[in-house]
Structures are given as structure tokens and as C-alpha cells.
Queue: 2 jobs
Job 1
Amino acid sequence: MPAAVDERLGERRLGAQRRVFAWFAREAPLVAIFCVYLLGLLKLIPYVIAQDGWYALLAGREIVDRGLPDKDYMTVFTLGHHWIDQPWAAQLALYGLYAVGGLKLVLLFHTLLVAGAFGLAMYAARKLGASPRSVMIVALLCVFVAPWAWQFRAQALAYPLFVAVLWLLAADSRAPSRRVFLVLPLLVLWGNVHGSVALGAVLVALRGFTYAVGEFRKPERAPRWLSRVGALGVTAALGLFANPYGIDLFSYYLKRPSSPTLGHVNIEWQATTLSPVTALFYALALASIWMLGRSRRRLTGFEGAALVTIVVLGIFASRATVWFPLAAIVLMPRALDGIRSLRKSQRVPVAERLNLIVAAGAVALVVATFVPTAMRPVGWYDSQWSEPGVQAVANAAARDPDSRVFASSRYADWLLWKRPELIGRVAFDTRFGLYSDKQLEALFAYHNRIGNWKPLLNGFSIVVLETDGEQKVVRDLLRENGTRVVFRDDDMTVLVRADPVARTPAS
């Protein structure tokens, strides 16, 4: 190789290294926040899996074994009900990971996914022009806004898609470009991953609306902006319905938010009431609205409308609060930059060497934590679930092949996952969208011990309950002749009933 060429390559490498070092020096606080966030998630791994996580794995396995479902066959209460399994791709992907590396790989992937969405939101804010300090402040405030977003479930696969869609739309609102139509493949993927794609479609439609408002007074450009608005509308529709279930998804998207009974049974569909748990969400939501008014010129019409929309959705349904911290990290730092006192404080020079040390230390700490976590035995990952308990249920069910199992919401999907022979014999699981209003009312009465709730257990000879949370049910059932405890630990109690009364579950 000629010496001149070799010298040029060396200069390029040196230039690339300098750019990397300069980036780390500039972004070190954000790198540190991301690393600390990831460290926290790694420590929480045994606690993030719950009903929805077990259901995602269960549904993925069923898709592999039987194909996409149409009619339910898994639980007694919903046997034969029309079953639209909209997030089939997420379930299939998660089960595929399980088949390759077991629960360990699935939960490590989930941890990186949640942390990755958080990091991507900070990166998007910087690319939209926010200062590192403002991004750092907003990100720190948002860490604990919706900790239930850390839970392992199919929804987590939608987090980075949400951030990417919001980023593209926000960038387009600042400088319209054909790149905005990259949201199309993102929405199509999202539409096969989780039902929250409806939020993505709303954001795309909102961008189309704000663009039309901005261009409305320019009649000479009408053909151009009308076609663009129409294309955004088609993109939103494709995101909603580009799924194997097609137009059947219309009822799927409408049923859950329009069912008041569903909100009684599933707390995630209830309005977000002010409490110690939700106080931070309300505080930051109010702060974001205040900053919109204070620094309205720093945000575009779309960005302000999108943030308000996400705040309103979070108030109307507690499950929607998970989108607010990600949206706030992407959008609010620019508004924060508009506050004069903060803008002055950002003129402090960057301590490059100190920042590099901080960033390198944070990355080293993540590596030092991740490797031992990945080396832990498989039992550590599901240590919060009682293997002897599920064995006791399996033994009781094997003694009577006609027996049926009534399990609490916490344990139903887990039992179906761990013991496939119980499919069709468990009372219900967490797919509350499949239930009739009558069934939802019966489940609400049972969960809250209202009125005559006990008939819901008729026909179920094996009952699996939470030891602490369902003590009243355990006491009432033990008063029956012949009912006995076959297993009990601090979390789970398994009862076998000698006379489960008539086999007439709610219908």
C-alpha cells in the first residue's frame, strides 16, 4: 500500500476516534443515565414477569403448534368464543427466543428492549435539537413515572416502535420530508406486535391534520398537501389493519376502550386516579402542559398536540401512562431549553476528561453486572413462581382427568404455560377482551367479594389462589365438607374440593 494512502487511512481512523471521544464527552451524562437505568432493570429481572408475560409465551407456543387461532379452546369460560390474537408476531418472536435460549434469553432480551427504548428516546431528543442537560433533567424525572412499563409482556416490543414513529413525525413537523413515510413499515410491524398501534395511527393522523392546518391557506399548493395528507391517512389505516385478521380488527380495537365493564375487572383499563403511585405522572403531566404554554415556540403544533393527546390518554386509562415518559423524553427537552434561566446555565463548558471517565465507568459497570446476571442459573429468573405449587396442581389434575381448575388471575396463564395438559380445563385467563359483559361482571364480583360471588367457582374441583390476597376465599372454601389444602407456601395455596357443586360456570 502506498505511504500516502496509508497516511490518509490513519488520519481517517484518528478522526473517527476523535469524533467518538467527542461524542462521549458531550453525551456522557446521558450515557450514564442509560447505564444506570439498565442496571436497575437487570436487578429487577426476577420480578418483571407476570400474567401477561406467561400468556405471551403460551400464545406463541400455541401458534407454533396450531397456527393462528380463530376460536378459543384454552379456558372454560371462553370456550368457542371468537379469538382475535392481534399481537401474534410478538408472541411468536418471544416464544422463538424461548426455544433458543429459554426464559433467561427472553428476559435478558426484554431488559435490553425496555432500556433501549429509553435510550432511543434520549437520542431522538438530541437529534431534534435539545441540549444534553435538558434531556438529562427530563429523563431523570421520567424514570419512575410508569414503572409498570418494566413488566415483561408483548407490549414491550412496541416501545422502540413508538419512539421511532414519534421521532419521525416530530422531525417531519419541523422540516417536512418524504422520510416521514418510514412510519409505514414501523406501523405495519407494530400492528402485528401490539394493539397499542392504535396510538401510532392516531399520531400519524394527527400529523396529517396539523400539516393540513399549516398548508390550508396556500391554495396554489393544494394538490400537493392534499395528496400528502391522504398518504398519511392511508399509512395510519394500513398500520391498523395490515394484519392476518384484517378488517376483523375493527371490533378488536373498539371493544376494549368502549367497555365500561372491562375497566371494573382489569385495573389497567380504569382511569388513572391521583395516588402516591401516580402522583409523579400527574406532576410531570401538569409540568409538561405548563412548559408548552411557557415555551410554545420551541415545539411545533404537532409536538404540542401529540404530547397533550398522550397525557389525556394516560388520564383516561392507567395502562396508557407507559407512553408518557417516552414521549416526554423525546419532546419536552426542547421546551425546557426555552426557559431563560436554564438556557443561561447551559453555557457551562464541558469537562471533557471528567465526562469521559463517567461514561467509561458507567459502561464498565453495566458490563460487570450484565455478565454475572447472564451467568445466573435458570431458576433465578423465575424464582418468584412456585415450581412445587404447579406440580401439586398437576398431580391433583392427573388423579381426576375430568377435573377443572379455578386459578386466580396471577396463576392461570402460568399454569397453562407450565402444564399444557390443563388447556381447556382452567376457568379463565387474562384475555379479558374475550369475555361477555356478564362474565366480566361475575369476575368483578368475585375479585371484590361483592354479593353472591361463590357460584363462579361451581364445577371446579381444584382451586389455585394467592395465599395472602385471597385468604377470604380460602377460608370460605375450607368450610365445605371434604375440601382440603394440598399445597401452601407464602405465595400460593392449592385446594381440592370433594364436592364442587354443579358444573355451571358463568356464560
Job 2
Amino acid sequence: MEGKSEPNIVVRMMRLWGIAAWMDLLWVTKDLKQFVFYFGAEALLSVAAMSTTLLLAARFNGIGAWSTDQVVFMLAYSTAVMGAMETFFNFNVLEISRRIGRGQLDHVLVQPRPLWVAILTEGFCPFSGSGSLLIGLGLLAWSTSRIGIAVTTGWIALLLVSLAASCAVVLAFSYLWGSLAFWSPRGAEEVCSSSNVMLSALRPFPLDGLGPVLLGGMLTFAPIGFVGWLPARGLLGMGPSWQSAATPLAALLFGIVASFIFRKGLREYGRTGSQRYLSHGHRR
């Protein structure tokens, strides 16, 4: 008797997201008090990360060319980006250097699904990880109404594309640094944590006043500008029209480079194996 046909990749990913969401819901309902404290702490951290820039904008009625409401829009955008990363890439999926350095990548490679599918579905936490995302989306809606932007179908589509592209830049940047753990498992185990903290800490500030060299660094070696500043300028119409396409283009370029380096790292990993299960391994 013929077996059941395999579902297509989209259906399979939807099922995997559903399983992850159900497991996340079980964790939430298992101890509601713990979840409330956890969710509240994440929300407070998001507000605290924005507070410095918000207070400066309120005190001086804006920052440079940015009005107070425009600053709120940029902060809301960057908060939604980082919140989306926490929602879709939790459980050390974003901090891939931890999995590589600890030998946990083997647990993913032996499963009957492509690695990229595991990366896109395994860290989905729509209940426990969405605190920053909800705050960011709420502030986006509020600041958009305050600024008086004409919210058309095209503008909403541009917003969604920009958000997805910013998330892709963050993911690619993390995997670029995380690939170091293929060659130095112990030394680079926490490198993704440091790189992601850098992006998160510097994202609330407008970069208009920076010189060309420093600004170029903020868009290449440390692509902080693509997390909030540049896509927000494009969405608010504060610069030339090409700025709206800059973030998706950057996501494509960073994705290509990250994929190339990560694949080279996987080949090295296949040649040397994980130290976790060797007699001289640093972690057992």
C-alpha cells in the first residue's frame, strides 16, 4: 500500500509553527504567574531601551530633523523588528553560536527536515516572546496617526517589506558572527549575544549627524542603520525615494554573504565534528 504523500514545504512549515505555538501556549498556561512576570519584564525592558531617546526628543522637541512623533515612529519600528526576532527566533536560534559551540547543532542536523526550515520554525514563540513586538506595533500605529501619514495599501505593503528586510539583516548579521563558532567553538560560543546586544543598544538613535565614514560603518560592518533609522526615513518620506529600497537590497546582500560563510562553516563542522562528544571536548 502506498504511503501518504509528503506535504509541500509551506504546509509543513505551517504545521511546525503550529506545534511550536502549541508548546509555547502549554508553557504559558502551566504557570500563569511566572508568565506574567516574564512577559512584564520583557515589556519593561523594551520601554527602558527607548526611554533615553524618548526623553531627549521630548526635552528638545525632537532630535535634529526628526520631530518627537517621528522619533517615536523610528523607535517603534526598531522595537517591532527586535520583537519579531524574539518571537520567531527564540531558543538560541538567533544566537546560533551557542548551538554550534555547545554541539547542539547536531540535534538539528539529524532531524528529517532541511536546516533552513528548522531555523525558520524551531524558535517560534508567539505567546511568551511577543511582548516587544506588540509594544512596537502598538507604538507604530499610534505614531503613524500622530504624524498624519496617508496609510494606503502601498504604504502598508512597504512597511511589511521593510520590517521583514530589517529582520533579515539582523538574522544575517547574527549568523555571520555566529559562523565563527564553527572554527572556534569555545571562544566564539557567545559571540552572537554580543553582536545582538550591540544592535539592540544602538538602534534607538538617529544617525543623521554622523560623518560618511562612521555612517558607512553603521550600514556595513555594524548594520545598525537598517534596524530602524534608514527604513523609518523611507517610510516617513524624509529622504530620496531610493531609501525605501535600501533595506530590502541590504537584506539580500547580507543574506548572500551570511549564507556563503555559514555554508563554509558547515563544511568545516562536517570535517571536524562537534567537540561536545569527544574525550577532549570542553563540554559534555
